[in-house]
Amino acid sequence: MNQITGTTKVLGILADPIHHVQTPQGINAIFDRCDIDAVMIPLHVDSTSLPLLIPGLRSLRNLEGFVVTVPHKAAMLKHCDEASPAAAQIGAVNVVRRTADGRLIGDMLDGDGFVQGLQSEGIEVRGRSVYVAGAGGAASAIVYALAGTGASLITIANRTPTKAHELVERLSKSFPGVTMRVGTSDPGGHEIVVNATSLGLRPGEPLPLDASRLHAAQIVAEIVMKPRVTPLLAEAMQRGCRVHFGEPMLRSQLELMARFMRS
Ligand SMILES: NC(=O)c1ccc[n+]([C@@H]2O[C@H](COP(=O)([O-])OP(=O)(O)OC[C@H]3O[C@@H](n4cnc5c(N)ncnc54)[C@H](OP(=O)(O)O)[C@@H]3O)[C@@H](O)[C@H]2O)c1
Questions:
Q1: 36: how many CB neighbours lie within 10 A of its CB?
Q2: In what order do the strands lie in the sheet with 129-133?
Q3: Ligand 1 center to residue 199 CA distance, Å?
Q4: CA 151 to CA 165: how far, in whole Å?
Q5: Residue 214 DSSP one-character state
Q6: Which residue, judged by its Cα, is nearest atom 12 of ligand 1?
Q7: pLDDT grade, residue 191 (50/70/90)?
Q8: How far is CA 172 from CA 62, 89, 175, 220, in A?
Q9: Are 18 and 46 in contact (CB under 8 A)?
Q10: What does the alpha-carbon distance between residue 200 and residue 136 come to, in Å, rounded to a whole number?
Q11: Dist. CA 3 → ligand 1 center (Å)
């Protein structure tokens, strides 16, 4: 790792809990590889204290920006002076740039990271039908990016159906050329199937969709990274589907995040 000196720029990641984050390792490896005099450090802050921290972040003159993760993505949007159209429509940010005069500019890169992760493995989205399980922060960003990349049909299914309906209503206006609808647990009839819920992270959790409806012509993608082979991916492999792991989404985002915070 490059030596930290008085000229080193500082970047942070805000989370609660924080022990599990993998972004600092990835971003610091990029800084090392590219010989950039900057370091990312973990900043453990809970939801109650977040508003108290914001003025400090604004006034830290060597802070270039910070990554935002659970549970602060939606709350942080309200503290930004500016947000990208994607972040405003999704209702959350996961990366913030601090300008020289202490303004905070937010963006949401989960969706672009996911789509670029697919593309990095040779999977194209344009013109394809996609089933998305989930309607939370990551799922919303993924639907936004899939629609922006030209998916022809996006079906969203969520445990709490009202959230899926709200997401379709919110985003379909921005992408009139994309058919968006709320679905059931059946992913049949789609070329790409995405788990954008947190299911699969903990042992014994139910599958996010009806895996008995998967067939070998489908690509099944995860956003959960640990375990690498989630129960859904194990089922998909058994049925002969091509699978796409959760890791490329993070790998693709690291480059995007570093570029956004340092621009
Ligand atoms: N690979 C990457 O780079 C990357 C990036 C970002 C996030 N992630 C992962 O993505 C996952 C989701 O993150 P998020 O920010 O979107 O979280 P979130 O906003 O809390 O959304 C969670 C989603 O999972 C669903 N869900 C949770 N428990 C469920 C259960 N028991 N049964 C059915 N559905 C359930 C929720 O449904 P309800 O709406 O019904 O609650 C919601 O759709 C996390 O595991 C996170 O680690 C990965």
A1: 16
A2: 179-182, 153-157, 129-133, 192-195, 219-222, 242-244
A3: 7
A4: 19
A5: -
A6: 198
A7: very high
A8: 40, 11, 5, 24
A9: no
A10: 15
A11: 37
Residues whose beta carbon lies within 6 Å of some atom of ligand 1 = 70, 110, 113, 134-139, 158-160, 163, 197-199, 201, 223-225, 246, 249-250, 253
Going by their DSSP bridges, the two strands 153-157 and 129-133 should be labelled as parallel
Six-digit token pair at 148?
């922006």
- Residue whose CA is closest, atom 21 of ligand 1? 136
CA of 207 to the centre of ligand 1 (A): 13
Closest CA to 236 of 262, 217, 258: 217
The neighbour count for residue 170, using CB atoms within 10 Å, is 16
143-172 residue pLDDT tens: 999 999 999 999 999 999 999 999 999 999
Q: Render the burial of 223-255: b for 16+ CB within 10 Å, e for the rest.
A: bbbeeeebbbbebbeeeebebbbbebbbebbbe
Long-range contacts of 37-40 (CB under 8 A, 24+ apart): 37/2, 37/5, 37/7, 37/8, 37/9, 38/8, 38/9, 38/10, 38/11, 38/64, 38/262, 39/1, 39/2, 39/4, 39/8, 39/9, 39/10, 39/11, 40/11, 40/12, 40/13, 40/67
Count of CA atoms in the C-beta half-sphere (13 A) of 166 = 14
The tens digit of pLDDT for each residue in 194-253 reads: 999 999 999 999 999 999 999 999 999 999 998 999 999 999 999 999 999 999 999 999
Whole-prediction pTM value? 0.93
Catalytic one among 9, 73, 173, 226?
73
Residues linked to residue 100 through DSSP beta bridges, in sequence order: none
Q: Closest Cα partner for 263 from 127, 140, 141, 99?
A: 99
